Amino acid sequence: MNTVKTDQIKKGDVVKLRGCDWIAKIEDNYTKRPVRLATVQGYATETGSIYITDAYQVFRGGSWHPVEITEKHRKTLSPAKAILDLF
Predict the structure, then answer these.
(1) Which of 12, 26, 30 is nearest to 54 (CA)?
(2) Which of 14, 53, 69, 76 lies in disulfide reach of 34, CB 3.0 to 4.6 Å?
């Protein structure tokens, strides 16, 4: 299974978010930014900002692929969250 780096997630990609298993569709193409615009389907469907580091799987080519956080995006995490994301 191929991993997808956080800076390779593009507009139209569907991702699963950590901690809640909600689904989000990425609505912008700002691949280098840590905060992305997305339509999130959770308790309700809303469009807003998400941290791309909260994405742990991306749907491409008919299957889910794990997301690897780039070093640049990892630096935007709080120290405690960065440690927890290693596990």
Answers:
(1) 26
(2) 76
Task: Write the pLDDT tens digit of every residue in 14-33.
Answer: 999 998 889 999 999 999 89
| Residue 75 in tokens | 């630096």
Of the candidates 50, 8, 14, 15, the residue with the CA atom closest to the CA atom of residue 29 = 8
Strands (E), the chain: 4-5, 14-17, 23-26, 35-41, 45-51, 55-60, 63-68
Q: What secondary structure letter does DSSP report for 86?
A: T
Give the count of alpha carbons within 13 A of 50, CB side only: 29
Tens-place pLDDT, residues 41-69: 999 999 999 999 999 999 999 999 999 99
